[in-house]
Amino acid sequence: MASCNNITINSQSDPSTASNCTVIHGELEITLNASIAGPIEIPNVKTFQGSVFILGNSPDDPANITSFSMPSVENMTDSGGGGGIGFHYVDKLTAVSLPKLKYVDGFNIRNGNGPTINISLPALETVSGILDIEGNIDV
Length: 139
Known about the structure:
By secondary structure, this protein is mostly beta strands. It has one domain (about 1-139). The protein is built from one helix and 14 strands, in the order βαβββββββββββββ. It is globular, with a radius of gyration of 14 Å.
């Protein structure tokens, strides 16, 4: 496995790029694109030194991702304090699973118009910065 820098996912097959990484430096960005729909899983990343963004364009043009999982990630941090995860305009998202995540600099989900999101963070011990959750959430 490798250490990887800045990854952008623009299609359903792009997550396989990140699956070869155990450490990601920089950003993992999943951007709105009609071809990205359904579940996204990033299976092997254990350490994230940067931020994860899952972004739709607007409330009228949300992302089509239905679930997001990083089953191996334990830490999401950045030396500048900016490491974290953000979901914006994700009106089809129903599940976020980060079962081994212990530490994150920030956690932000904004889901005003979508279904209830089941968030699974059973190992989470510390959020050192912002914890901002808006919408229909089941933790």
